[in-house]
Amino acid sequence: MHTCRNCNQSFQTELALELHRDTCTKGQLFCQVCGDRFREGDATKDGWHYTCPNEDCDGDGLQDDLFHVEDVRTATH
Ligand SMILES: [Zn+2]
Ligand SMILES: [Zn+2]
């Protein structure tokens, strides 16, 4: 079983989870260092300084390493 860590929805296969992660509305931020997605609230404590919530990743800074998924989509289309 594969579970989306953003919305806790479960999927039978890793592929199904991957497809879901592209459309998951709960995963609003994207870290370009580790390629992971997470909720905005997981990346910031004060709403000002953003860091990647993955412990083994040192991505930080909105617009530096972390981006809103919508912004990435518009930029690549
Ligand atoms: Zn999800
Ligand atoms: Zn990261």
Automatic annotation (TrEMBL):
Superkingdom of origin organism: Archaea
NCBIfam families assigned: HVO_2901 (NF041915)
Protein name: HVO_2901 family zinc finger protein
Organism: Halosolutus amylolyticus
